Amino acid sequence: MIATFFTRRNTAYLLVAMAVALSTVSAETQHHIRARPVEDNLKEKLANKKPSKVNRSLKSKASKSSKEKKKDKLQTTFSVGFNDDYEVMSGWIKIEMDKDDDMDIEYMIDNGPESCSDCYFAIMDESDCDDAGGADTLYSSSEDDDTENPWSEGGDGAVSTTSSGDGAGSILGVNSGHDFDDHHCKVVVVIGHEPESSSDSWSKSSKSSKRQLKSHKSSEDDDLNILLCGVLHKPGKTDDC
């Protein structure tokens, strides 16, 4: 009888335990089933979420700031042997122009006049180096602007060389009164005096009519000559001119 009692009691406990286990599994299963649609809905909302207006605004401002800093560029490599007195003289010039038409100039000169203190760059209103000597400089001023011509001796385009005839540097904030399109495909020259020992300079040769600086001539400075010449073009766009 006692054994039967314990058997019935153990059976009862076993039935209760099974009921509790089934209840727990059912609850977890129901929770999982209920949670799945919520997770799916959340993923769908995240996938369809649009960028906020603040992010678009910041992107727009960054793009605008980048455009404002952009500068137009021109450059050229000078032709070697342009002047008989400086047959191995060479160099290059790079120009960046901002929205106010101010130019930052970077340059390099090799084998030029020694210790030149009166050499200078000039951008000419001409597109062919052979005709540069008779052209006017690309410069204009208005009544409200009394800026002096930068393409003149002692002007903003002045450069100097070492005792070996080399020179390199930067010239900032040069303004000629003309915009980027006016300078594109125009001739830029390096101007200086002929060597003192020269007996066959451009100014004395039959070729001088084209390469002597007609627009820079004066009774005091009658030996100014074009030492180097090149045509300004956009980087990598030499065929545009």
Explained architecture:
This protein is of the alpha+beta class and 241 residues long. It is built from 4 helices and 8 strands; from the N terminus they run H-H-E-E-E-E-E-E-H-E-H-E. It has a 4-stranded antiparallel sheet with strand order 1-2-3-6, with no helix packed on it. The protein is elongated.
Secondary structure blueprint with pairings:
Blueprint: H1 2-47, H2 53-69, E1 72-77, E2 90-97, E3 103-110, E4 119-124, E5 158-159, E6 167-174, H3 180-183, E7 187-193, H4 208-211, E8 224-231
Antiparallel strand pairs: 1-2, 2-3, 3-6, 4-5, 4-7, 7-8
Strand content: 15-25%
Summarize model confidence as the mean pLDDT: 76
Tell me, what's the shape?
elongated
- Element order: H for helix, E for strand: HHEEEEEEHEHE
Number of helices: 4
Structural class: alpha+beta
Low-confidence stretches: 1-6, 56-60, 62-67, 198-210, 215-220
Radius of gyration: 40 Å
Tell me the helix content: 25-40%
Main pleated-sheet profile: 4 strands, antiparallel
Regarding quaternary structure, what we see is single chain
> End-to-end distance, in Å?
119 Å
